[in-house]
Amino acid sequence: MITTLHRRVALLWLALWLPTLTLAAPVAGTNPETEKFKVFDATLYRNKPRLDSYGIEPIEILYAARFWPDTRSSRLMERLPDEYRVRRLGRDLRAMRKPVVIDIEHWPLEGDEAQMRESQAKYITVLQWLRNEAPGLNIGFFGRLPGVVYHWSLENRDSRHYRTWQDENARLDDFAELVDTIYLPLYTYYPDRDAWVKYATAHLREARRYGKSVHVFLWPQYSERNEILGQQYLPADYWRLQLETVHQHADGLVIWGDWDGKRNAPAAWDETAPWWQVTREFMRTLSPHGEAAVLSEQKH
Hints:
Layout: H1 4-17, E1 38-43, E2 56-58, E3 60-63, H2 74-78, H3 83-92, E4 100-103, H4 113-133, E5 139-141, H5 150-153, H6 160-170, H7 173-176, E6 181-185, H8 193-208, E7 213-218, H9 236-249, E8 252-257, E9 259-260, E10 265-266, H10 274-286, H11 290-299
Parallel strand pairs: 1-2, 1-8, 3-4, 4-5, 6-7, 7-8
Antiparallel strand pairs: 9-10
Helix pairs in contact: 3-4, 8-9, 9-10
């Protein structure tokens, strides 16, 4: 267990590491017990309708290309992005009311302690540059808190791998104090539904350790990491199971997809797609009046 003294020492270490930054306080957190479950749209489809009409709100994803001019250069991306570039981005976002997700994933937060601390300092530097320019933003990192480990999360909770995973997540407690929201990707790698639920609930338990609102990224397709099923759409009932599981255990949901890798462009929106029909039905359960409002708007 991390003690208060340990937290103070860690924060002091970060302050010494980042002497030029003002560690601005994060936006006041929400109470998971009273916060309304929210659904956000991070989809990339072209010609899609206004999903906010269905109660699916917009969200801003800051992909790596927003921070570095050339994301193909590993040497460039090992270093911090240009400070002026990040601060200018923060100024551009200053008036934004929707949540902001920083999608920088390549600085490792597992393994060697010194490497983890160095990476953590980089993430915090980027966070604070943005916050200094736009202090009112609600900001979190994609997939950094907790670490995402599919196979380890399926093991018994007293196994060596499971405990190692928990220990690595505990090392991020102080980092988590500086973000507003935890953004946890729970993508689909295999057809085993029971395993997916176990993997999802294990990660959500770990995410709760940080005491922040937890929003899950879901993708209605299999991850490209599955060489056989990658980017195939999930069966409708599997997608429904995922929506319901996240609704039960998290504070919100972010829907991501669909980038057409073959064309290197956004895929076309399909109003009849089974995943979308299930999502519309799910949104009706959250807000019974929402669908009526949509139908009324379409008539006019």
